[in-house]
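User: tokens in, sequence out, please.
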């Protein structure tokens, strides 16, 4: 089996001071990448900050013979995003890979969520992914090569109790990734999204009652399993783009959003009413045949 290598490549991993981000950074470095280890050093709620977490991971990499520099800027501001990318340019001259991993969590029942709890997650997950990706994308576009991995969640696609703010943020991340993939295609930039499930500081904050009936397996607890997919998607060997992948409890699977054939109302037909919808709702909902559009334009093209 050919070993995936990142020799000569420069990677940025946000939120790399612990958990999945640390695993991503260590694997990329072990395979030859020069790595910018970004971490604000705060709590899972997004409070506080410090340099110790990023410094420790960068030290692990350099002690093992790899190349890495630490960065402590926040992903949640345009200035922070630019500074993270500039760190890569200053230290290693370019950016080839970006793994958007930084995140925070503030779970609560929907009616108990505060404006602060909503804004804090949108700032890190959505704005953070935007602010780091934009300057990194510009570098990749100009050189004609890049690999970007976004981190969404099953919560954002399928929902999860007491995670309305988290789900909204992660759903937005997938939308952002889809557009970046479309715009990156002409420039040799492959963009994909992972939906990981692993034992982490994030899952520890969840109400255990919401996880009732969800078994935990050793594979579920291994960040390396998620990293395996992230590293593959970040590699030259990956030919795919504009896709999303679930990694959970020992299973890798593609996740996609489809549209049914549905019921079509001809342009010369009378204006549809709620009664018409009721009469055809079974056809509208029928999943027997479906399509997976690659863009809004492709979805519209499916309509007779």
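Assistant: Sequence out:
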């Amino acid at each position: 089996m050919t070993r995936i290598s990142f020799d000569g490549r420069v990677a940025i991993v946000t939120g790399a001071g612990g958990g999945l981000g640390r695993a991503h950074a260590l694997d990329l470095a072990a395979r030859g990448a020069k790595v910018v280890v970004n971490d604000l050093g705060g709590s899972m709620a997004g409070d506080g900050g410090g340099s110790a977490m990023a410094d420790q991971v960068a030290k692990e990499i350099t002690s093992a013979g790899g190349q890495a520099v630490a960065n402590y800027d926040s992903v949640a501001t345009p200035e922070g995003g630019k500074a993270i990318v500039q760190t890569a340019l200053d230290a290693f001259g370019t950016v080839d890979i970006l793994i958007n991993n930084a995140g925070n969590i503030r779970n609560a029942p929907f009616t108990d969520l505060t404006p602060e709890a909503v804004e804090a997650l949108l700032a890190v997950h959505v704005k953070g992914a935007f602010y780091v990706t934009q300057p990194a994308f510009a570098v990749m576009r100009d050189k004609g090569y890049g690999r970007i991995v976004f981190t969404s969640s099953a919560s954002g696609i399928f929902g999860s109790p007491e995670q309305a703010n988290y789900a909204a943020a992660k759903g937005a991340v997938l939308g952002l990734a889809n557009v970046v993939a479309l715009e990156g295609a002409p420039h040799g930039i492959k963009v994909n999204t992972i939906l990981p499930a692993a034992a982490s500081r994030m899952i520890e904050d969840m109400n255990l009652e919401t996880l009732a009936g969800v078994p935990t397996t050793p594979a579920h607890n291994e960040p390396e399993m998620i990293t395996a997919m992230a590293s593959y998607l970040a590699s030259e060997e990956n030919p795919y783009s504009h896709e999303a992948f679930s990694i959970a409890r020992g299973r890798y699977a593609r996740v996609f959003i489809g549209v049914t054939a549905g019921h079509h109302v001809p342009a010369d037909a009378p204006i549809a009413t709620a009664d018409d919808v009721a009469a055809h709702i079974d056809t509208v909902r029928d999943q027997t045949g479906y399509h997976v559009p690659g863009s809004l334009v492709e979805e519209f093209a499916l309509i007779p």
